[in-house]
Write a structure and sequence with these properties.
The protein has 428 residues and is an all-alpha fold. It is 32% helix and 2% strand. It is built from 12 helices and 2 strands. A two-stranded antiparallel ribbon has the order 1-2. Strand 1 and strand 2 form a beta hairpin. About 3% of the residues have low confidence. Belongs to the SLU7 family. Associated with the spliceosome. This is Pre-mRNA-splicing factor SLU7.
Length: 428
């Protein structure tokens, strides 16, 4: 690092005018001086010579590049320094200290009489009528002197730093924690009184039994799902994982038209070999909707609904009680439906239409296509019926041979047959 000083031209001229001597001008360095400066710089980098010291007494790293360590000529330095690279005091912003407290909300003080200069709508002194956030009153507080709002706390002019803006406890009043302590203390006192009354009524009971049950309730985790007592947000499911030795679902039938396999959820709901021999896997729906699975799911839903309505019932703890309640509920529900249906039939009639045979038997036709062999067995599986849309399909109006929406150009829909973008509804 160069140890020479860089003096401004104005400073040289000023010194020349003051002294009137031309010998004060800085002389040009000779080749020998440049060589000594270079050797000193290499020695400082190698560590054999002491580092340069700035005006504050701190050592300057000799490995700093020269374009960083050398100060500009207009800075007016008298020796090696890095002050020009540090934050300037005149440009540094003064931030608010982290311990500066400020209130949140209103002060809690409300005047009983309107004060001059206050808001004409609510009566607060901290804002005007055009800035009032309350509902506009029919008769303002200026004329009614009723319901004067409390004054908002005028916050100090805070200039928070990066850490101050992200401080979670900035503006927190520690005295607020006293209210929480007092609330818990009242709960403990009430429990102590109840425990004393129980001991007076039942002398055989010991205090340890009460404390033991209290500790169990004290440290139990709060749950969100009623009926199962399991936190659904924290539960981790492993139902999609399989043992590595088992055959993967998508390898049971490699036909592209076989049961659909979802690789994301690793699920195959249908049977991959419906016409083949009985295999170990018949689809997830076979396991999910066979046996007592549906009844168990219905009982679980009934337990959840009953818990939401304030009935203390649990599927695993009290299955008999839940079954009786569900049976009674289903009987009353069916009886209520029957009464409503019968009352509607008695009032409007039409009971003969409910006794008609199914539509398939009346018309001797259905939309399901079946193919049979000579021996009466099915030649192929029943084709899956596509879900119909609630909108009208294949409706041709106004002599069009294609439907609306079969043609698109420049962001407009139209008819493919005539490339018309005008959609006219047939009102006849």
């Amino acid at each position: 690092m160069a140890s020479g000083t860089r003096v401004a031209v104005s400073q040289i001229l000023r010194n020349k005018d003051d002294t009137g001597d031309e010998e004060d001008e800085p002389k040009k360095k000779s080749r020998e001086d440049w060589r000594k400066a270079k050797e000193l710089e290499e020695a400082r980098k190698a560590g054999t010579a002491p580092a340069a010291v700035d005006e504050t007494g701190k050592d300057i790293n000799p490995h700093i590049p020269q374009y960083i360590s050398s100060a500009p000529w207009y800075y007016g330095t008298a020796g090696p320094t890095l002050k020009h690279q540090r934050p300037q005091e005149d440009r540094e912003a003064e931030f608010t200290k982290l311990d500066t407290y400020y209130n949140k909300g209103v002060t809690g003080y409300a005047a009983t009489k309107y004060r001059k200069g206050a808001c004409e709508n609510c009566g607060a002194m901290t804002h005007k009528k055009k800035d009032c956030l309350e509902r506009p009153r029919k008769i303002g507080a200026k004329f009614s002197n009723v319901g004067i709002a409390p004054d908002e706390f005028s916050q100090p002019n805070l200039n928070l730093s990066y850490d101050g803006k992200r401080d979670r406890w900035n503006g927190y009043n520690p005295e607020q924690h006293k209210a929480i302590i007092e609330e818990y203390q009242k709960v403990e006192d009430a429990k102590r009184e109840l425990r004393a009354e129980k001991l007076e009524q039942d002398p055989t009971a010991t205090e340890e039994d009460d404390l033991e049950g209290e500790d169990e309730d004290k440290y139990v985790d709060e749950v969100d799902m009623p009926g199962t007592k399991v936190d659904s947000k924290q539960r981790i499911t492993v139902r999609n994982l399989r043992i590595r030795e088992d055959t993967a679902k998508y390898l049971r039938n490699l036909d592209l038209n076989s049961a659909y396999y979802d690789p994301k959820t690793r699920s195959m709901r249908d049977n991959p070999n419906p016409n083949g021999d009985e295999s170990e896997y018949a689809g997830e729906n076979f396991v999910r909707f066979s046996g007592d699975t549906r009844s168990h799911a219905a009982a679980q839903l009934f337990a959840w609904d009953a818990h939401h309505r304030g009935l203390d019932v649990h599927l695993l703890a009290e299955p008999t009680k839940l079954q009786l309640l569900q049976k009674e509920y289903d009987a009353k529900k069916e009886q209520f439906k029957t009464q409503v249906k019968q009352s509607v039939l008695d009032k409007y009639g039409g009971e003969e239409h409910l006794k008609a045979p199914p539509k398939e038997l009346l018309l001797a036709q259905s939309e399901v296509f079946l193919r049979y062999n000579r021996d009466g067995t099915l030649a192929s599986d029943v084709e899956k019926q596509l879900a119909k849309s609630k909108y009208e399909e294949d409706v041709l109006i106004n002599n069009h041979t294609s439907v609306w929406g079969s043609y698109w150009r420049d962001g407009q829909w139209g008819y493919k047959c005539c490339h018309s973008f005008i959609k006219v509804f047939n009102i006849y």
